[in-house]
Design a protein that fits this description.
Chain lengths: 227, 227
DNA sequence: CCAGTTATTTAGTCTTACCTAAACTATAGG
DNA sequence: CCTATAGTTTAGGTAAGACTAAATAACTGG
C-alpha cells in the first residue's frame, strides 16, 4: 500500500529560486534560455544546464537541449506556491509588522522558502485573502489560481494621450522601487502619457512631469481611465 | 581600514542547533557531554566532537577534550539570540496568527534561523516586548538579558504540602506539552503537592488529582503561594 | 590499583548540493 | 555554408555535515 505520490515539497532554496526565475522569464518568452537564467541567478551557464537537467528529471520542467526550458504542470504549481508565499509575506510584513515598502523584499525572499502551509494560510486569513500585494503584483489564491488581470496595460505599449491608473509596479529591484516611490508612481496613482520619445516616455501625474526611460516604463501596468 | 569584527551571524542551521542544545544542557550541568548532545541532536557522538571542534575554533565554545563543552561569551550571545527568536516566534504565531499551543514549536524551530533582526524587533514591538512566551519560558530582551526568574521553583524539588502557581512548562516535546495541557497544567494554574512517592508526585489542581512521574514534574516551575 | 566498561576522540569515507573553467557542439542569421 | 553565439559536457572543486570503525582516555567497582 504505497501512499499517494508526494506533490509535497522537498525542494532546496536554490531549486526554488531556479523555478521562480523560469516562471518570470517564461511570462514573456515561451521558453527561458540558459544565459538569461544564469544572469538572473548570478551563476555560470554551466551551472544552469546542470540544475535544469536535475529539475527535468524531477519532472518540474520541460527541457529540450539547446532550445530552452519551461515549467511543467508540477513546476508551475511549485513556482506559484513560492510566488504566493513571497507576495503574502510582503503584504504581511508591511501591514502587520510595519515594514517599509523597500524593506519587505529581502526578508520575503528568504522566508518564502521556509514557511509552512499553515503559516501561509494564517497570513492569508489575517490579510483577508488579498488578490494583490503592495506593489500590485497578483497573489495566487489557495488553489494557486492567479487573479485575472483584465484591463491591465503596459505603459510602454500605449500611445500619446493615454490616461490610466497605476495598478502594478512590476519590479523587485530595490533601487527601481525607491525611484518609483520618489516619483510618486505607486499603485492607485493616476497618470497621463504626454509624449513618446525614442528611448523614453514623458509622463505627467500628481507629483509632476518626468521623463521615464523605456526600461522603467515597461514595468508599470495601468488600467485605462475613461476620459 | 578593516571594519569592526563581525559579531554578526554566519552560522548554519546545524551550528545554531548545536549552540542551542549546549545552552540547554549547561543550564543544569556546567558542561555538556558529547553523548548527551548526540542524543539531543540525533547524531553520532563522533559527529558531535567534530562540530564542537569547529565551534571551538570559532571561539563560540570553551572545549576541553574528554571534559565537555560550554558556551563562550560569543556563543552565549548567539544562543540567546536564537532563543529570543524562537520564543518571540512562538508568542507571535500564537497571538497574531492564531496558532495552537502545540503547532507553534515546529514552525518556530525552522524560522528562528532565518528571520532578520528587523523581523525580531517588529515582532517584539507588536507583542509589547513580552518577558515570557506562552509556555512561560523567559524571553531574552533586545540586549539579550534574560528576565530574572525570582521565586520560580521546580516542582520536583518541593515537599509535600507545597502550593504554588505554575509559571512555566519547561519542555518542547509535543507529546509532553499536549499531556500537560490535557491535565490542565498550564501557566497560571494553581496546584498542590499532595504526596511525594518514589518515582512520582501526587498533585491536585482545579481539574483533578494526578500522579506525575518525576521526569515530568521536573519540568514544571512554580511560584509559591502564600497560604 | 587494576581491569573492564563506557565515553570520547581520531581517522578515513561518504553524500549531497552546489558551483566553476575549459573544451566541445548545436543553431540560426547573414 | 559558415561562423558567432548560445548551450552543453566534462572533469573537478568546495563546503557542510554526517557515518563507521578503531584507538584512546576516563571512570568505577572489586
Amino acid at each position: 500500500m504505497i501512499p499517494l505520490a508526494q506533490t509535497k515539497k522537498l525542494l532546496s532554496e536554490a531549486q526554488e529560486d531556479y523555478l521562480k526565475q523560469i516562471y518570470f522569464l517564461t511570462e514573456e518568452a515561451a521558453v527561458a534560455g540558459t544565459q538569461a537564467l544564469a544572469d538572473k541567478l548570478s551563476v555560470a551557464p554551466a551551472s544552469v544546464t546542470l540544475m535544469i537537467q536535475k529539475l527535468a528529471e524531477m519532472e518540474l520542467v520541460h527541457y529540450e537541449q539547446y532550445k530552452g526550458v519551461r515549467l511543467s504542470e508540477n513546476g508551475t504549481r511549485a513556482a506559484l506556491e513560492i510566488l504566493r508565499h513571497h507576495r503574502l509575506l510582503e503584504s504581511f510584513l508591511q501591514k502587520a509588522l510595519g515594514y517599509g515598502w523597500d524593506e519587505v523584499h529581502a526578508e520575503a525572499e528568504k522566508l518564502e522558502h521556509y514557511i509552512s502551509e499553515t503559516f501561509e494560510e494564517r497570513m492569508a486569513d489575517w490579510l483577508g485573502h488579498p488578490s494583490h500585494d503592495p506593489h500590485g503584483d497578483p497573489i495566487p489564491d489557495a488553489k494557486l489560481v492567479l487573479p485575472s488581470e483584465r484591463g491591465a496595460l503596459r505603459l510602454g505599449d500605449q500611445e500619446e494621450g493615454f490616461r490610466g491608473t497605476i495598478v502594478r509596479v512590476g519590479t523587485q529591484d530595490k533601487d527601481e522601487l525607491n525611484l518609483f516611490r520618489q516619483l510618486g508612481l505607486v499603485p492607485g496613482v493616476s497618470l497621463e502619457l504626454l509624449e513618446v520619445l525614442d528611448e523614453a516616455l514623458r509622463v505627467n501625474c500628481e507629483t509632476g512631469t518626468f521623463l521615464l526611460p523605456q526600461t522603467l516604463s515597461n514595468k508599470l501596468h495601468l488600467r485605462r481611465e475613461r476620459e
